Structure formats: structure tokens, C-alpha cells
């Protein structure tokens, strides 16, 4: 299986966290919170569709809601493949960072600055 | 249909890919913001969203429309390739049209730019004199005024700032070992301050101050001095027995081609005194058409001011002249009209109205524009016809595109783009064609347009707009027509292009009418010009040499004539010799003769007794001068026209008063054409009285010894006048020179006709292929039922031949009117023979027939099975 890119990882995690409530608006908000950058809806649509094409996500339409002018929401959820990918990336992350501590990194940075 | 509110509509417009769900997301987001932070903030949010997406919106719109354009261009190229012949024909036709427009546009803008380069051109006027009848009507205009008129105006009218007189004449120039006859221009010393001719060296204010100063044009500076600096050096100018040295004070840039004032060498106006013409400077009568007077006025209101005071001016300066000029006509007649009045012509109008008819003559420009537009129209018509014809092959494609979702606008765009592709090709080859044709065009139009001017801003503008206009006009109609097809009918195979193709038929008629017009015009113009060149002029012009004496005074000329003729009389190659004060078209002199209280302006020529014999002029009545009779010196020989105009019943023996001396009419000659056949023959008087000098010696030479005889004459001349060049011309060449511009027009019209016919044949070629395609089934069915090939040929060509006939019928009256108008320019014309019209009809018909023959034969012989197969 291919390794997930950073961006894909962020997206899949956001969708997982949102559970049943993952659609354009909410995903954009969640990403804004997580990455401290302002995400707008137009920015998330294309990555979401790409992830769906790759098989990590699946989408389905909800029931129409009157607030949205009678339109349905397109909700996204993780597939089996997506979850697998997340698990893999998590273990890879752990092994990558196993012997690295934030404190050591910061000490190194201070040495460089002086 | 769902109704979208404003917000939703905007989102959909700005984010084209928005489906329903995404729209829903937007709606939700917006209502959330509205509830959290209020409507105003929501509005701001929307606007910022839309603005941020604007650039990529534009990019994506462009990209998506371009995507289709790539396809259109591919299909366009494919179409061109699969219909090579017809497409090439189209491209050729259009490029002819474009080339014609470019060349003619240059011609016209050059013509219109004449004299516009002078900075003061708005306030410069040329003076002219009008000859009046007592009733106030104008008898005629002269494009000159007497010599002192200009400076007198400057003193008299405050509105006149300065005046300049320009007088080109021919003298002999001598410098080191060059001795030749050249054009010398007398000019007042403020020549370079009034006109914007640039000086390469010298100060414009003072350059002609010294009486012996001289200004050379840069070509002539190089010619006489090579690379050396001419300033301060000397050039000798000789006229008759006057020889003067001039000191070069400046060099001027060559005068531009689009200037009516041309110069090579300029000397101060008052140096006329140095050549024995001091008396002319203060004379208030005597008009020499070569002396032109220009004035500069203060502003555009000055002319009105001048007009009011002109009568006082005439009274002050012209009263003596009017007394003499008026003669018995104005005597005793109460008239508030002066015998002459004066006017001024704007500098820029001179080029189009040099003879002051009172209105500019733009005929040339109209004709040329007409030709250019005609060729362009014919080419466009071809293009449209053939596009429509090719449409038949593309029915399935159009049907399919519509089915797959193209709307009308997209189809129109597709076909417009195809047209644009073809037009781009035509534009490119049009420019190539222009470059190729430029030398020929320059020769025909007597201009020297340069390649660089094709690529100037205004020219490129023109080409560009032309192509756009062509694209819309020529491409628009087919585009709209083709996109109208209904896909269902096409794909079901039931679709038939309407059999009525009236539009195409009308187009073809227009094309052929233009061609017929041009063919007939060419023939008529050709006939007229040939007539003029070959008609019997009333005298024998072959092998006649005219030698100029280059002497001024009567004595010198007489002596020279006697000596010269003595020496050459015995030479075998010379048949006859005589002398005159003017030689047919050269050096004419018109004077006023009053007869029966009416004023006439006959030509007066002083001749030697054997003038008529040398030129082979025939007698009508009486006799010519005889060497023996000394009384002949007060005799006059007149021509038929004079008798008719003067209304004399029995001319022989009658005395003509009303000239400077009484003259006894001893003979009447048959009329001759001294100049071109454009002008009426004027009344003429031939006298032996030595009031005028013999300046021309006319020699009739033997035809097979001309060069020997000329050599001999040259040696005799060298003997008698070694310091002057032997200047001669052939009479028949002089006559032909007058028709140069007419011959040019003949060439131009011939070329135009050639192209028009070419393009029209291409047009009929296209039309017949459409017709055949359309009727192929009908033809095959007829074949099956036993029709003969000849019958089929008749059937298919019938339509075209009828169209050509109609075209002819339409064109004939138009050409008749146009040609009659043109022939009015000539005093002596041919009759327009109906044979020409019939000839044109035959030519066009045969042309059509030949063009379509091949295609029709092919269709008539085709195997019916092939076209009926899919029924």
C-alpha cells in the first residue's frame, strides 16, 4: 500500500474524528482548528474527491434539509482501506519518532542559535 | 425548475462546478455566519469569497473555452485538407482581395497626403486668375497671376503674411565637364521659410538673399560634386546668350514625392534680371502658366477679409491691364464685373484640381477604391457560396454535435473559427502577394511605395480590421446557416438542403455582373486609347525630329536658323527642314483676338514658309506661304476651326483685324490635332510675322538613316553652338508621351479585369460543384431511365448559363453609363459598338461553360449505383 501524504493524513483524521458529521462545512472547520490555517470549503472539495477516487473515503447523500434550501449534504466516511492506511501511518510515525524527544530537538535548536 | 435566489445564483456563476450539495454547504455556512455575526458580516464574507475566486474563475473559463477551440481548429484544418482544391481557391481569392485593398489603401493615402507635410499648409494658398464675361459668368481660369501680384498683395492686405513665387524653367547647367539642360527653379528668397522643405546646410532665412546664390537638392549635390562639399563652389547657368555664375549657398533635402512643388536647383527669383527678363518683373499683364504664386495668410478668417477688399486691389493695380484686356467687349457695357477676378486655392487641394475647375477631381481615387472593393466582394461571395456548398458534406457532423449537447452559439463559434482560420491564411498570403505585386504596382501608379510602409502601424491596423470584418461578413452567414440544421432530420437521413438556393444565385449574378462590367470597360478603354494613339492626327509625325535652338532673341534665332539650314539642306538623310515658334505640343502660345466684337483665344504660331510641307499638313482652301511672295509676311494661314468659330464665310482674301497687326487670310488648312485627343481642336493662326522667335527647328528625316542623320546634325550643332548641348526629341515620341497616363489606366484595368474574371470563374466552379452534389441523385435516376450524356450536360449547365445571361443584362446599362461618362473626358472618341457587349457576353458564357465542363462530364458519366446506394 502507498504511504499517505501529510495532507491526506490530516484529511482522513479529520473525517474520522467527525464521525457521522463529516461534510464540507464541518471538515473545513475541523481542519482550520487542527492546522491553525484558515481553510475554506472550496479548498476541501477537490482533495476529498481525490481521496474518494483512491478508495480511502466513501461518500453518501443525506436526507434533504430545509435549512439548506432543501438540498442534501454529501457526507464522507472512512473505508476499510482508509482505516488501514491510518493505522499503518500511525505505526510508521511511532517508529520514526521513537527515539526522538521534543526536548532534545529544542536543545539542538538553541545550540544552533547561539 | 428550481428557483435560485440571488446568492445562490452568484455562487453558481462564480463557481461553475457547483452541484447541489456544494451549494447547500454554502447556504448553510452563510446562514451560520449570518446568525453568528449578522447580515453585514455575512455580506462581507460572500464578497471576499467571490473576489478570492475571481482569478481562477477567469482562468478556468478561458481554459474551458479554449479546449473546444483546439478541437475547432483541428477540424478546420482537417476540412481544409480534405477539400484542398476549393479551400485553396477560397484562400487565393481572399488574398487577392486583401492585397488589392492594401495596395490601393496605400495609393489613396499617398494621394491624399500630397503637400500635407508643410507645417503651415493650412494657411498656404495658391493664387489664380479668372477671366470673366460681362454678365459675371467665368470664361476660364488660369492657375497663375502676373508676377508683381503676390508681393503687392503682401503690402496691400494685412491678412497676407508673405508671398512666394515659384517658377520652374529649363536652362543649361555647366559645371566642370558636365553641360546639360536641367530644370532650374526660380524662387523668392523666403521659399524655405514658407514651405517646410528641409535644408541640410544653410540658413533658411538668408539662403537666397544674395542675387547669385543657388541651392542644390542633395541628389544634385552628389551628382555634380560627389563627396565634396559644394558650399561656396560655383555653377554656371546659361540661357540663350546670357551666361551667369552662381555660388552655392546651401543644400536642401530632395523634395518628397508627394509634393506638387518639385525642385532640383533653386535660384533667387530676381536673378531673372541676369537672364534678360528684367522687364517681366514689373509687368501687370502677360500670364505664364509655369509661374506659381503662393501666399501665407494669418488664419482661416483671413480669406473672407481678403475677398472683401479684392475689388479695391484690382482697381489700384489692374486698371491699365483691364482697359487693354477688356477690349470692345467690356466697352460701352455697363458691368459691375471686372474683366478679371482673382482667387486662391488651398495648398492641399492643388493636387486634385490643378486646373482650377473649382472642384477637386477624385475620379482616380473612386475608380481604384471601386476596383478594390469589387475584387473583395467577389472573393467574399465565393467564400460564402463555397462554405454553403461544403455544408452538405458536414451534415452528419453538425447533427452529431447537436445531439451530444452543443448549443447554437457553440456551433456558430465553431464555424466562425473555421472561417477565421481560412482568413488568417488568406491574410498571410495576401501580404505575400502584396510584396510580390509591389514593383508592378509602383510602375502602374507612378509612385514609389516601400515595403516598410506595409508594416507600419496604420497599415497593420487596416489589415487586422479587414480580416475581422471579412471573418464576420464572409464567415457569419455560413456559420448561421449551417448551425440551423436540425439533428433529428439529419441523422434520420431525411434531411435535404433546400433546393432553392436563391442567395447563392444572386451572389453569382453579382460576381458575373462585375466581371462583365470590367471586361467591357477594358475593351472600350483599350479601343479608345488605341484610337487616340493610332488616329490620323492630320500631319505626319513619323521620323520628325524637333531641335530646340536654345536661343532667346529674335536676331540670334534668325541667324542660327539660316546658318543651320544652309549646312544641312544638302544632306541626303534630311528630307525637309522648317522652323516654328512652337512645335505642336511644345511651347504653345495663346493670344487674344477680337473679331466681330467677340473675344477669341486662338493659338498663334510663327512659322517658316515650308512648315506645312514638312509636316505634311493638308490644305482645305487657298494656299500656304510661298517663299517668293514677300507680301506673305502680313499673311496668315488659319485652320478650319477658326473659320467655324469666327463665323467667316469667305475666308480667302479677308483681313483679320483684332490682332496686334492686320492679317490677310491666304489659306485654310485642315484641322490637325496638336496635342492629345482629349482636347478640342482650338482655332489656330500661322503667321510669318517675326513677332515671335523661331525656337524650334523641325526636320523630316529619311526613315532608314535616322541615326546617321542625327550624328550629322550633332556635328553641325557643335560647330555653330559649341557651348550648348544638342537638344532634340522625336515628334512621335512626344505625342506618345501624352498618352502615358491613359496607357497606365489601361494596364490597371486590364489587371483588375484579369483578377475579377479569375475569381469569378472560381466562383462558378464552386457553385456548380454544389449544384451537382445536390442534384446527383436526380442525375443518376435520369441516367437509369436512359438520358443521354449530352442531355444531362444541358440540364446541369442550364442554371449557370441563365445566371450569366441575367448578369450580362444587368451589367450592360451600368457599363454604358459609366463608359459614356468616362468618354466625356475626351473631345474625340470612338463610338461604343454593341459588338463589344455581345463579345463580353460570349466571353463570359464560354468561360462558364469551360469551367463547369469537367465537373459536369464527370457527374454525367458517374455510375448511378454509387449515389443511389443509400436510398
Number of helices of chain A: 5
Please work out how many helical segments of chain B DSSP would assign.
23
| Largest sheet, strands/sense/barrel of chain B | 6 strands, mixed, barrel
The amount of helix of chain A comes to 55-70%
Average pLDDT level of chain B = 81
Q: Biggest interface in this structure?
A: A-B, 16 and 16 residues
Q: Radius of gyration of chain B in whole Å, from Cα?
A: 38 Å
β-strand amount of chain B? 15-25%
Distance between the termini of chain B: 43 Å
Q: What is the molecular shape of chain A? A: elongated
Largest sheet of chain A: 2 strands, antiparallel
Strand count of chain A: 2
Q: How many extended strands of chain B?
A: 23
Percent helix among the residues of chain B? 40-55%
- Please provide the ordered H/E string of secondary-structure elements of chain A: HHHEEHH
Please identify the structural class of chain A as seen in this structure. Answer: mainly alpha
Using the CA coordinates, give the radius of gyration of chain A. Answer: 18 Å
User: What best-fitting shape of chain B do the alpha-carbon axes yield?
Assistant: globular
CA distance, first residue to last residue of chain A: 44 Å
Poorly predicted runs of chain A are none
Structural commentary:
- The complex is a heterodimer of chains A (114) and B (871).
- Chain A has 114 residues and is mostly helical.
- In chain A, 61% of the residues lie in helices and 9% in strands.
- Chain A contains five helices and two strands; from the N terminus they run αααββαα.
- In chain A, α1 packs across α2 (24-35).
- The longest helix of chain A is centred in the last third of the chain and has 18 residues, at 80-97.
- Chain A is elongated.
- Chain B has 871 residues and is of the alpha+beta class.
- Chain B is built from 23 helices and 23 strands.
- A six-stranded mixed barrel of chain B has the order 3-4-9-6-8-7.
- Chain B is globular, with a radius of gyration of 38 Å.
- The A-B interface holds A 23-25, 40-42, 45, 61, 65, 67-69, 71-74 and B 8, 15, 20-29, 31-32, 49, 53.
Amino acid at each position: 500500500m502507498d504511504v499517505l501524504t501529510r495532507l491526506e493524513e490530516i484529511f482522513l483524521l479529520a473525517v474520522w474524528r467527525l464521525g457521522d458529521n463529516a461534510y464540507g462545512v464541518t471538515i473545513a472547520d475541523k481542519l482550520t482548528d487542527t492546522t491553525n490555517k484558515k481553510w475554506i470549503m472550496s479548498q476541501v472539495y477537490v482533495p476529498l474527491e481525490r481521496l474518494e477516487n483512491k478508495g480511502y473515503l466513501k461518500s453518501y447523500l443525506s436526507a434533504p434539509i430545509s435549512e439548506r434550501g432543501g438540498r442534501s449534504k454529501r457526507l464522507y466516511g472512512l473505508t476499510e482501506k482508509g482505516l488501514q492506511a491510518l493505522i499503518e501511518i500511525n505505526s510508521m510515525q511511532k517508529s520514526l519518532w521513537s527515539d526522538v524527544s521534543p526536548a532534545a530537538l529544542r536543545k539542538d535548536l538553541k545550540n544552533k542559535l547561539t | 425548475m428550481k428557483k435560485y435566489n440571488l446568492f445562490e445564483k452568484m455562487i453558481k456563476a462564480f463557481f461553475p462546478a457547483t452541484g447541489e450539495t456544494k451549494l447547500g454547504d454554502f447556504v448553510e455556512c452563510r446562514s451560520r455566519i449570518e446568525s453568528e455575526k449578522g447580515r453585514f458580516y455575512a455580506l462581507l464574507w460572500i464578497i471576499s469569497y467571490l473576489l478570492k475566486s475571481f482569478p481562477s474563475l477567469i482562468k478556468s473559463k478561458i481554459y474551458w473555452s479554449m479546449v473546444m477551440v483546439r478541437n475547432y481548429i483541428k477540424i478546420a484544418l482537417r476540412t481544409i485538407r480534405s477539400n484542398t482544391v476549393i479551400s485553396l481557391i477560397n484562400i487565393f481569392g481572399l488574398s487577392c482581395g486583401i492585397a488589392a485593398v492594401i495596395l490601393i489603401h496605400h495609393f489613396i493615402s499617398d494621394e491624399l497626403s500630397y503637400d500635407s507635410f508643410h507645417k503651415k499648409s493650412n494657411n498656404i494658398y495658391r493664387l489664380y486668375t479668372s477671366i470673366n464675361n460681362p454678365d459675371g459668368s467665368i470664361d476660364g481660369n488660369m492657375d497663375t497671376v502676373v508676377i508683381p501680384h503676390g508681393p503687392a498683395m503682401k503690402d496691400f492686405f494685412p491678412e497676407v503674411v508673405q508671398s512666394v513665387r515659384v517658377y520652374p524653367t529649363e536652362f543649361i547647367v555647366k559645371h566642370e565637364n558636365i553641360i546639360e539642360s536641367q530644370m532650374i527653379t526660380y524662387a523668392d528668397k523666403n521659399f524655405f521659410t514658407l514651405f517646410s522643405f528641409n535644408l541640410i546646410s544653410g540658413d533658411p532665412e538668408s539662403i537666397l538673399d544674395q542675387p547669385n546664390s543657388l541651392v542644390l537638392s542633395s541628389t544634385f549635390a552628389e551628382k555634380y560634386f560627389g563627396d565634396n562639399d559644394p558650399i561656396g563652389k560655383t555653377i554656371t547657368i546659361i540661357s540663350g546668350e546670357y551666361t551667369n555664375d552662381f555660388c552655392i549657398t546651401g543644400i536642401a533635402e530632395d523634395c518628397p514625392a508627394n509634393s506638387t512643388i518639385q525642385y532640383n536647383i533653386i535660384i533667387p527669383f530676381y536673378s531673372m534680371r541676369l537672364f534678360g527678363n528684367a522687364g517681366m518683373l514689373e509687368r501687370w499683364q502677360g500670364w505664364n502658366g509655369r509661374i506659381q504664386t503662393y501666399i501665407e495668410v494669418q488664419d482661416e478668417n483671413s480669406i473672407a477679409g481678403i475677398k472683401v477688399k479684392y475689388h479695391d486691389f484690382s482697381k489700384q493695380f489692374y486698371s491699365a491691364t483691364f482697359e487693354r484686356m477688356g477690349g470692345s467687349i467690356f466697352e460701352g457695357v455697363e458691368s459691375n464685373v471686372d474683366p478679371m477676378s482673382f482667387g486662391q486655392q488651398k495648398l492641399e487641394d492643388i493636387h486634385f484640381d490643378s486646373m482650377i475647375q473649382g472642384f477637386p477631381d477624385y475620379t482616380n481615387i473612386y475608380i481604384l477604391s471601386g476596383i478594390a472593393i469589387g475584387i473583395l466582394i467577389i472573393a467574399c461571395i465565393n467564400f460564402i457560396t463555397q462554405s454553403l456548398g461544403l455544408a452538405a458534406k458536414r451534415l452528419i457532423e453538425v447533427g452529431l454535435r447537436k445531439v451530444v449537447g452543443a448549443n447554437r452559439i457553440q456551433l456558430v463559434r465553431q464555424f466562425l473559427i473555421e472561417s477565421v482560420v481560412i482568413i488568417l491564411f488568406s491574410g498571410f498570403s495576401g501580404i505575400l502577394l502584396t510584396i510580390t505585386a509591389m514593383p508592378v504596382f509602383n510602375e502602374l501608379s507612378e509612385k514609389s511605395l516601400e515595403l516598410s510602409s506595409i508594416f507600419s502601424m496604420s497599415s497593420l491596423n487596416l489589415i487586422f480590421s479587414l480580416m475581422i470584418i471579412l471573418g464576420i461578413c464572409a464567415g457569419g452567414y455560413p456559420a448561421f446557416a449551417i448551425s440551423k440544421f436540425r439533428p433529428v432530420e439529419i441523422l434520420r437521413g431525411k434531411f435535404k438542403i433546400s433546393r432553392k438556393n436563391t442567395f447563392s444565385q444572386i451572389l453569382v449574378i453579382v460576381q458575373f455582373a462585375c466581371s462583365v462590367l470590367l471586361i467591357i470597360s477594358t475593351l472600350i478603354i483599350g479601343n479608345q486609347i488605341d484610337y487616340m494613339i493610332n488616329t490620323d492626327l492630320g500631319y505626319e509625325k513619323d521620323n520628325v525630329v524637333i531641335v530646340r535652338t536654345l536661343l532667346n532673341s529674335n536676331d540670334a534665332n534668325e541667324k542660327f536658323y539660316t546658318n543651320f539650314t544652309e549646312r544641312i539642306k544638302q544632306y541626303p538623310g534630311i528630307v525637309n527642314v522648317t522652323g516654328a515658334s512652337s512645335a505642336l505640343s511644345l511651347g504653345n502660345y495663346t493670344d487674344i483676338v477680337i473679331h466681330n466684337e467677340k473675344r477669341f483665344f486662338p493659338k498663334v504660331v510663327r512659322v517658316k514658309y515650308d512648315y506645312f510641307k514638312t509636316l505634311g499638313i493638308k490644305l482645305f482652301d487657298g494656299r500656304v506661304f510661298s517663299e517668293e511672295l514677300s507680301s506673305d509676311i502680313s499673311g496668315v494661314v488659319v485652320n478650319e476651326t477658326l473659320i467655324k468659330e469666327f463665323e467667316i464665310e469667305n475666308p480667302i482674301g479677308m483681313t483679320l483685324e483684332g490682332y496686334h497687326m492686320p492679317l490677310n487670310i491666304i489659306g485654310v488648312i485642315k484641322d490637325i490635332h496638336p496635342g492629345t485627343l482629349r482636347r478640342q481642336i482650338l482655332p489656330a493662326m500661322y503667321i510669318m510675322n517675326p513677332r515671335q522667335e523661331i525656337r524650334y527647328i523641325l526636320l523630316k528625316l529619311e526613315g532608314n538613316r535616322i541615326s546617321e542623320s542625327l550624328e550629322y546634325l550633332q556635328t553641325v550643332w557643335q560647330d555653330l553652338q559649341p557651348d550648348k548641348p544638342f537638344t532634340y526629341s522625336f515628334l512621335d515620341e512626344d505625342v506618345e508621351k501624352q498618352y502615358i497616363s491613359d496607357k497606365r489606366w489601361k494596364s490597371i484595368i486590364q489587371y483588375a479585369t484579369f483578377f475579377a474574371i479569375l475569381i469569378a470563374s472560381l466562383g462558378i466552379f464552386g457553385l456548380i460543384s454544389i449544384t451537382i452534389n445536390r442534384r446527383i441523385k436526380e442525375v443518376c435516376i435520369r441516367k437509369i431511365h436512359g438520358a443521354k450524356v449530352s442531355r444531362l450536360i444541358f440540364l446541369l449547365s442550364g442554371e449557370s448559363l441563365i445566371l450569366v445571361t441575367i448578369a450580362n443584362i444587368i451589367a450592360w446599362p451600368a457599363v454604358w453609363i459609366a463608359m459614356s461618362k468616362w468618354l466625356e473626358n475626351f473631345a474625340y472618341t470612338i463610338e461604343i459598338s454593341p459588338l463589344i457587349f455581345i463579345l463580353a457576353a460570349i466571353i463570359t458564357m464560354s468561360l462558364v461553360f469551360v469551367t463547369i465542363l469537367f465537373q459536369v462530364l464527370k457527374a454525367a458519366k458517374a455510375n448511378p449505383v454509387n449515389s443511389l446506394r443509400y436510398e
